[in-house]
Design goal:
The protein is an all-alpha fold. The chain has helices at 2-11, 13-27, 29-63, 73-80, 82-95, 98-109, 113-127. Helix 2 crosses helix 3 and helix 5 packs across helix 6 (98-109).
Length: 140
């Protein structure tokens, strides 16, 4: 039993690390707070990058005679880190399912970069928001 567990952990180190982090987030309030702050900072950086992508598309649209110029997140990713994109595509196709990449991620990454980044940032901000505790057992 122990050997099987250690073999499973050694084969899937990233999954084991993610599991430990999730356990810390669930059971340690200080880790949860630090993670929420980190996620809010990351989401604001994504919003800043989305603004830069929107300005970039806008200036290309104004400068060109072709009309509206929209750059997808997949195009930016292919320009910036093509090896990482290919590795991710291969890994997801082999480990999860080929339809996960082709059916879900490619349509999402084909959205305009500013829209994809802004939507991702807003989702992260929503998930990492400060939650106010309500004391329902207060006697008036």
């Amino acid at each position: 039993m122990i050997e099987t567990l250690t073999e499973l952990i050694s084969d899937n180190r990233a999954l084991a690390v993610a599991g430990v982090i999730l356990l810390l987030l669930v059971f340690v309030p200080a880790a949860r707070t630090v993670t929420q702050v980190s996620l809010r900072i990351f989401a604001r950086l994504l919003l800043l990058i989305a603004l830069v992508a929107l300005v970039s598309d806008g200036t290309r649209t104004i400068a060109s005679d072709r009309g509206l110029v929209v750059t997808s997140a997949l195009q930016y990713w292919a320009e910036i880190a093509p090896v990482m994109l290919e590795n991710l595509k291969r890994t997801l196709s082999l480990k999860i399912h080929p339809l996960f990449w082709d059916g879900i991620l490619v349509p999402l990454l084909s959205l305009p970069a500013w829209l994809f980044l802004a939507a991702s940032a807003l989702i992260i901000l929503f998930l990492a928001r400060k939650r106010h505790k309500t004391n329902i057992f207060v006697n008036a």
